[in-house]
């Protein structure tokens, strides 16, 4: 089963606060008017005050959720292209299909300095483990040395000096990025409408009397790759009426041991569908893996599938919550 998230542009109005964005002073009476007066703009991005001198004209995004955040804001005309593997699901039916049609697909491989220079990028939107990498030398600092601005996905913010990620709840990360990008691209009104619409969609999801225990399975056989407290599935599961069995792990996407999964006895397994191993193959592995044979989700065949783009920070998150909630209500009742 797959969800097809649609970000409506309902004319809802909500004053957004505490999202970390503010506009630098416009200056005196002789300052330029209109769009030019909006800049420079400063936002708080992963704890760093970052200033943008002008509206991006040739932004490059990395990965599907990040790309769709820009498409949802209607700034495809300000993009030089996007980088994305072709294993993240179809995009022909998504709400932002026109953005994909209008925007160059620069590469199906990893994003690099050479690629963004060739594209003439003036801003790169990526994240740690979503393109930015010290090992590859592709970092916001390296891009600044080339005269290219960057913006870091808030879901991927580092929580300290180590590799752990996550400094805010996942939905706060989504709202923060929409608000910040709204300022950076001077489309804050549209960003506020999206945030208000997403909040309303999520608030309308009924909560069950009993919360089924849910395990997010991304990949891995020796050890499973899953979602901790700061990855998007934490709030997707919670707001859908479930309990993430690895929600006590203070990290974003991370690896745990099978022993801990078995001990917590998930009642539902949520599969992240992407990659060379599709959801059917992942389901077959889980159902045939001996250590899981006694787990409630396997015994009762309660396995639900969402696309990768539903389960990383993206404008598909509210619809993913709605879809999973409907499944969990059945699981809780049964």
From TrEMBL:
PROSITE patterns: FE_B12_PBP, PROKAR_LIPOPROTEIN. Residues 58-334 form the Fe/B12 periplasmic-binding domain. Residues 1-20 form the signal peptide. The keyword Signal applies. Keywords: Signal. Pfam families: Peripla_BP_2. It comes from the Bacteria. Belongs to the bacterial solute-binding protein 8 family. PANTHER family: IRON(III) DICITRATE-BINDING PROTEIN (PTHR30535:SF7), VITAMIN B12-BINDING PROTEIN (PTHR30535). This is ABC transporter substrate-binding protein. It comes from Kitasatospora aburaviensis.
